[in-house]
């Protein structure tokens, strides 16, 4: 993860009272687009939200591809345990149900067994020009993903 440390110095009334604060700004980001609100309205499980954003922030490649297996399940549980406490861990069936729900609402598209792609209309990680190129390529090859703002059908489901 790329990070930048920023120090801000604030001067008070006299030079002797110099006050400074430091904080870290993450440079890595995942963009979430407005059309996600239509997908999100159909998500029923709070765990599905947690899994989606954890996958996007930690496991998605720049093109949105995500590999899901037993190791990813364990890593997600480690994250939940660390951030929320051991009582927040989920069983494998819950994890699998969350993946199924994210597929159903169009947030994830299954590309193969254990291989998914984040919906490029709803989420993007990486340079914007790459997103535009990918959407054009998908459109030309008839593999475009579900666009909830235009009721485009979800292919491959």
Notes on the structure:
The chain has 157 residues and is an alpha+beta fold. The protein has one domain: Arc Repressor Mutant, subunit A. It contains five helices and seven strands. The strands form three sheets. The chain has a three-stranded antiparallel sheet. A two-stranded antiparallel sheet has the order 1-2. A hairpin with a 2-residue loop joins strand 5 and strand 6. Helix 2 crosses helix 4. It is globular. The mean pLDDT is 80.
Key phrases:
Arc Repressor Mutant, subunit A, 7 strands
Per CATH, what is the topology? Arc Repressor Mutant, subunit A
Instruction: List SSEs in N-to-C order.
Output: EEEHHEHHEEEH
| Tally of contiguous helical segments | 5
Domain count, please report it: 1
Shape: globular
Structural class: alpha+beta
Widest sheet: strand ordering: 4-6-5
CATH class: Mainly Alpha
Mean pLDDT: 80
Low-confidence stretches: none
Q: How far do the termini sit from each other?
A: 33 Å
Helix content: 25-40%
Biggest sheet, open or closed, and with what strands and sense? 3 strands, antiparallel
β-strand amount: 15-25%
- Cα radius of gyration in angstroms: 20 Å
How many beta strands in the DSSP annotation? 7
What is the CATH architecture annotation? Orthogonal Bundle
The oligomerization state is single chain
């Amino acid at each position: 993860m790329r990070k930048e440390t920023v120090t801000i110095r604030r001067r008070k009334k006299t030079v002797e009272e110099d006050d400074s604060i430091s904080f870290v700004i993450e440079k890595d980001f995942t963009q979430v687009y407005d059309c996600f609100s239509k997908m999100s309205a159909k998500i029923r499980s709070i765990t599905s939200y947690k899994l989606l954003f954890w996958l996007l922030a930690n496991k998605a490649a720049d093109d949105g591809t995500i590999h899901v297996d037993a190791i990813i399940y364990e890593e997600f549980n480690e994250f939940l345990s660390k951030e929320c406490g051991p009582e927040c861990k989920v069983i494998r069936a819950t994890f699998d149900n969350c993946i199924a729900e994210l597929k159903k609402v169009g947030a994830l598209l299954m590309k193969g067994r254990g291989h998914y792609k984040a919906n490029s209309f709803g989420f993007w990680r990486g340079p914007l020009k790459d997103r535009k190129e990918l959407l054009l390529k998908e459109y030309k090859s008839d593999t475009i993903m579900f666009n909830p703002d235009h009721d485009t059908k979800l292919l491959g489901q």
